[in-house]
Each structure stands twice: as structure tokens, then as C-alpha cells.
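Deviation from plan, reported transparently: uracil complex.
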Amino acid sequence: MRAVDLIVKKRDRGELTPDEIAFFVRGFTTGEIPDYQVAAWAMAILLRGMTPAETYALTLALANSGDRIDLTGVVPIAVDKHSTGGVGDKTTLVVEPIVAACGVPVGKMSGRGLGFSGGTLDKMESIPGFRVTLTTQEFLEQLRTVGLVLCGQTAELAPADGKLYALRDVTGTVPSIPLIASSVMSKKIASGAQAIVLDVKVGVGAFMPTVPEASRLARLMVEIGRRSGLRVVALLSDMNQPLGCAVGNALEVREALETLHGAGPEDFREHCLHVAAHMIHLSGRGTSLRAARLLANEALGSGAAKAKFRALIEAQGGDARVVDQPDLLPQAPVQVSLMAPKAGNLARADARVIGMTAVALGAGRARKGDPIDPAVGVVVHARVGDRLSAGAPLCTVHAAGESKAREAMEQLETAFRLSSRSVPALPLFYRTLR
Ligand code: URA
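Because the crystal trials were delayed, the predicted structure below was used instead.
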């Protein structure tokens, strides 16, 4: 077999066999197939697509490119969640402690921010001392003893996906449904998940801008899960405006803590409880989704979820005092608010523009490995559909300096639009696929 023949076959709309896909993935994992051929192959897939059978074969080849964690015997059932990436999406920080507090152990391997979308590891690292690099042994031990782990993926887990993703990021080949589906599901399979709630984001601040496209992605991932013997539920949720108010690492941790204390933005709390209920239900705890939701409400309301989050921080070497003293989190020296120039109904709070602004402030990276500033970001004060008076705050920029703040304010002026007509609120969720 030659790599070039497989590129040509895909370019000419051919269907690759599982052996051909496994050959290609093996080749680029070992370095025998060079990056330029991998990039050409990814572009051929983006343009020509893949059949469900090809996508499933690619998922397995990526999952089998490194170690696979076996969680049978460690937890009764390994439940996980995955968000396809969004702006202000700090859901994991609240959902996982709720689920763990309901007696369902959660060991989650998360990623870093990519483009305008944030990453859980960057958020958790804004907690002083918190360590995201764990060995597989440490991961398993903490899952057994604390029932909650939040760490980075080890280099040995689905390494082919890491390589392919890095290339896709710089060759315009990220927004391909089969490539996203196989990337997400390969990591879940390799990390030992048996039941997964997929939070598939839809809107201007997501990879999938429309409900039909997001539904295609969700359906494909549910199908891959079914073929692999996993229980999968996909929730399509809105990402036209940021989730909650805070965008930026320490700012998001602060908002997650407020939520764990029983406050926080209402839409964010509702989103977290809904995702948590699905995870609890998939695990078999809670005889119905409604019963699972009651368990989730109880875990949040009683403070049990907050206690779990504290235990998680302690277990991973972080300063757990932040739970009750969020001012210990990094704070930006400059804070400036953008006001509504006139009265009106908020018709747009563009998640992509707000996410890009947060990245430009230093909350995200232009290139892999760039340092980030945990303190900076944007806090949005209004939701689409809100009636605002002239001079009401739209958002507050948290910046490292005056000039950065000025640039951000200019960028943010394009993110908001006020209308004289009444505007309906955006839905939190669009559909559920099983
Ligand atoms: N998240 C992933 O893990 N992979 C993708 O390809 C896109 C989003």
C-alpha cells in the first residue's frame, strides 16, 4: 500500500477500506507518512466526506494508535461528557462535581483551548497549584478514592488524534464532520468511557453553525458509540452567545464556583443541571431522567457538589481555599465596561467575536504552546432578548493593560446589536439524539 494511492482514492470519491485507513493512521503515528501527505488526505476527506463505515474505521484506528484505559473493575460504569467546544463553556467544572456527588465516579480527560473556544485544563490551571498532568496510575487511584478526576490526556492516549488535530488546525481541515466525530469518539473510547453525554454546540461560536449540521455530527457520533457498544446521548445546545457570563479562565472558574455555591447565572445553572441529569441517568442512577434531575438538584443545593469540587482541588495539589475565597484567583489590573449606546432589546451577543476578543486579551493561544494569562477575559452582562436602557452595561473587559483593554472594547462594539423590536430569548437546547 502507498499513502499517495489512498489520497488519490479519497480525492476521486472512493471508499477506503478499514485496512487502508488503519495503514494510513499507523503510518502517520510512526512518522513514516509525512505531514504533507497527512494534510492532503485530511483535505480530501474534508472535501469528499466519509461513509459511516469509513468514519467508524477511522475512529477505531485513532483509538487504537496508543494505550487504551480499561475502567471495568475500577468504577461500576465509566460515564463521561464531551463538549464540542464553545465560548464561556465551563460546564465541566460544575457538572462533574454534581455527578460525582450523586455517587457516580467521573474521571475526565480534558483539553486546552483551541482557537476561540476555551479549554477545561487552562481554566483549572488558573487555580494556584492545580496539577493537570497525572500518570495513568494516579488517575485510576484518584478515581477510586475521590470519585472525581480532571486532568489532561496522556501522550499515550490516541496519539494519532493529537498529531492529526495539530495538522488540521493549521490546514483548514477542522470543520469536517467525519474528522470531528472520529476525533472526539476515539479519545472517549481510548479513555475507557462506557456511557457518554455529548454536548454538541450549535451557532456562530461553534464548529457547527446550524442545527442540521450539528444534528449530522451528533447522529454520526451516536452511531459510532452504538457500534462500539457505548451508551451515548447527544444534546444540541446553543452557542450563538457565550454560555453564562464569564469568558476567560479565572473568570470562568469564579463563575463555576458561584454556581456551586447555589448562585451564578440562571441559564448556566440550568444547562449544567440538564447535562448532569443525563449523565446520572445514563449511569443507571435515577430510574428516569426526571429522577436523575432531582438527584442533581439535591447535590447542587445541599453543597455536596461544592464539597466534591473542593476534594478534587485538594487531590490535585491546588489551593482549595479558592472555593470560599475566589479573590485568591488571578485578577486582571484593568477593568472597563462597555455600555449600551441606546435603549433597545439585545438581538446579538456574538459568541465568536467575544471569544476572539478574549483570545486577543491573552486568555487563549494564537499557536499551540503559547503562554496564556489566566486573569483576563470578558464578562457579559446581558442575554439575547433582554430589554436594556441606554447606558446599561453590556460587558466588562478584564485586561492586563490599558491598550489591550482599548483594543478589546473596539472589537466588542461589533459583538452586540440592539433592536427596537422585541427579540425572543435563545433556547438553551435544540434537540436530544439517542
Ligand atoms: N474537538 C475534538 O476533540 N476534535 C475535533 O476535531 C473537534 C473538536
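The longest helix spans residues 266-283. We consider this an acceptable substitute for the interim report.
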